[in-house]
């Protein structure tokens, strides 16, 4: 078992050596900060969901494979609305909008709209491809009515590019490949920005343009979170400063924790900038808020002990040495266990989760280093004072006496506390049974976010869509993709997909073939079908190629071996999407037993990522819990101590999971990060409580006396750090993003559950199980040892050390 006295002496020796070279240490930190400022300026941003997947992920490889054949699957779109889009002015504006998109948007390929499409007409010679809307746009009402009738007569146009009532139309900009492009303000962001700039021009306001498509969403997402994250961080800093000022009444007590948090963030992000690491602005707040929380918590523990020692002894140097001697080991063990909890994120096979885990762990360790190396140096500057005197914090001794009294109260009611704990745990488990996993952009983000509200409007419109995914079919031989039997099977698959709740429309080679068959059959509606004769189908496709048709190339490869079907959705819920994708896999495997079927695109990607995150996070949480339990057992030399330590660490997970179940809050890609983060935060207070309880047991020889002295010695610090954490994360309630609000409530609830478990359940278990080896100082320690073990400058509120065990 680890000897706490020996470890404490080593920390004292470390600080003594540090103080001898304190000027050089300060200079070293200043140089590191300067270098980090340069590194931060090189930080890259990456909001492309494609880069969430690891390089060797099957879905990513499939997407890359089919994009090499068919080109970029991304697109930008604009929903256009007017009283009647079939007017000369509206059609002129739509054509002008298309020209502007093609001219100004990077990687623009081709616009598809009412004014820019392949309109097939049968002729005596066979087939011709013309414009639906002539150039220039005709002015006569008769011509407008003819265009309207033609458009609405074609199923390939009606309810796809234009609504039946003629009030909405869909303008789609297809894109060239991004291959070989970098990530910082990457191609998708430039595309999204340019698309918004084109659509927002005053000249197009009359057609009420609303942009959509993944590049637009990625750009809007980055812009929104680049503003929202600093706003919340600023609120958090302000709240933290106010609490620390009220609680500690010390300039360093306010400045250093915030300075440490900012410096640690700067050092870690600066290093990532130098290494070329890309970050997602929507996720950066997770490690940053955690870094701020641990910086405040660690600093409060050191300053609490420093202040007590400085009041008692009057010597800054001795107070600093005593503070690190008391807190050095608990802080180190806390940092290691918190970092271990954060590193559990790397078990999730998604690049941003790896970034969160590694960045959060690095922030925790850098923060610990600054607290144990920089804070003692800063506290050592200044004049000494006369020993004794009152605390600068009004009522501090009264608070310590109240904490000691709370310890007595807890120890006098063990059965009631354990029964209440069991009852609450059962209620939380019942809530967990109502727990659901889902990502719904309306429920998770909220319609108060402007770009989410616009996406929702577009998705609910008659012709607009929210996202898209693709079903890619690869046959074992060339030519099979143009066999009537396989196209009929593709039609059956399409009909099944059209019956899904999320589906808005489905596009494939069949739309071209049916429209082609209809065009050469004098436009009769009955001819909108797949020709059953192989020779006729081959003849139609040859006619189409000779007429200069190019649309089919988007849906089938040159060798007619690979087919592509795009499914656009008007809504998204990850739970429903998972069921629909699984159904497609089953149907496609049944219809095409000799072909390979791939699901690619944003919807399948989001759904797969949710599966990765949720189940990976649950697994990583359990692994982290087991690792921390083993570390506790090893550090305290007792299996029973490790098991006792798990209670306050499991309590937050139970409370949060139960609350989510009862309140109907779904586990999504953001709230799933709460439990591992809470595990990292909850373990801090547990370690401090257990470490001091064991140390006080060595000093008193009595469990009850040790627990009371632990309450008075570190209880105030535990309550203060927990209060800071709760209020720190409560600033999320000021956000317009629902999942931020959920995060604030859940983290605050989890921290409160951990604190209550530490103050009420852990003492009862310690007193009942007695996991530590008892050594009364009269028999187990020499007089000098006993004197040395009394905390430097401790202000005791309970002088009894012979209470019964």
How would the blueprint of this fold be written?
Elements: H1 4-20, H2 22-40, E1 44-45, H3 58-70, E2 75-81, H4 88-104, E3 108-112, E4 119-122, E5 127-130, H5 141-153, E6 168-175, H6 187-199, E7 210-212, H7 214-248, H8 251-275, E8 278-279, H9 285-313, H10 316-343, H11 351-380, H12 396-411, H13 414-432, H14 441-444, H15 450-460, E9 467-474, H16 484-498, E10 503-507, H17 509-519, H18 534-546, E11 562-569, H19 574-591, E12 596-601, H20 602-636, H21 639-663, H22 674-700, H23 703-730, H24 738-769, H25 777-780, H26 783-789
Parallel strand pairs: 1-8
Antiparallel strand pairs: 2-6, 2-7, 3-6, 4-5, 9-11, 9-12, 10-11
Architecture overview:
- The structure is a single chain.
- This protein is of the alpha+beta class and 805 residues long.
- It is built from 26 helices and twelve strands.
- The chain has a four-stranded antiparallel beta sheet, with helices on both faces. Strands 10-11-9-12 form a four-stranded antiparallel beta sheet, sandwiched between helices.
- Strand 4 and strand 5 form a beta hairpin.
- Helix 1 packs across helix 10 and helix 20 packs parallel to helix 22.
- The radius of gyration is 33 Å and the shape is elongated.
- The two termini are 22 Å apart.
- The C terminus is likely disordered.
